[in-house]
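Proteins fold reproducibly. Look at a concrete instance:
___
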Amino acid sequence: MLNPILSIPKFLFTYLVLWLLVGITHLLWLTNNYNFDIQLCLAESLIFNGLYAILGLFAGYSLFFIKDKKQSVLNILLNHTALALIITLFWLQIGIYLLELFFSNQPAYFLFLKKTYMLRFISGIFYFLFVVFAYYLIDYSRELDEKNENQKNLELAVQEAELKALKSQINPHFLFNSLNSISYLTLSEPDKAHSMILKLSDYLRYSISNSQNKMVKFSDELKNINRYLEIEKIRFGARLNYVVNMNSELSDLLIPNMILQPLYENAIKYGVHESLEPITIQTSCKFFEGFLLLEISNNFDLDSYTTKKGEGVGLENIKERLFLTYRQDNLLQVEKKQNIFSVRLSIPQNTKLA
């Protein structure tokens, strides 16, 4: 297992800065209270504090080993106490040995070391507590980060599953209607049935090739919608008309894949299918204040429309997908005025997706 302090730069930097502050404090304590040579004071501060900083890094492995074992609180405390005593005694002996090695001609200083041995031992215990606190704080921080990351990944996975489920409602519904139309036309108008099969093939090829894409170019989505409308035009003939007003500058804007399909399905189902008069589906679009604004409207037979209950799953499907994608619940508006039914979509651009 990698040492968390060594493996994470921000923790290593903080660890070293804290030990630097401890070393400076140690140096000031010596120079302000004792008349030792500055080089001797620097050496003591560097050796004792630098040595414990190094030992603290190695102690981290033992601390996590103790923590990972399924032990009682008493056993954990005993293990920590034993580790504190071993490290502190080892630190004192090595530190004193190194100072004697470099400053053997300073008998007054070594007398001072002996007199302050217990004070240093106590400070070593506090150093250990500092190291323990640092490691447990780091461990808690890592576990919290991992928990948040796992939660985020879980939410993304759920969101992706919901989006796929919503998308899966579109293609079978359209395919069912198209196959019914083809079945009808094969008996009455075989040429139209053949044309419809080719267009349906192109439509499905686009849908499959983009099934894994969350976002697609607006122009590509409109092209596929045009295929859909051409298929339905074969079925309904003069009863269906459609007009698309689009500025070429909007072509590269991004929208969720297959988000428009249910709107045109509704227009066909509740407009064209229920009326004997010609129905015109109009599509207008523009860019305004960071949004691609789409309006899809169609006229309908008012009498036949009022007998229908609701508009199916299409609009709810779109609302859910827009919310899952952008985390906004005000991106779709519906208006029915006299014999005109309109749906307005506001698709954010250059916005971080949910």
About this structure: The chain is about 70% helix and 15% strand. Confidence is low (pLDDT under 50) at residues 307-311. Residues 4-148 form one domain. The CA atoms of residues 60 and 135 lie 7 Å apart.
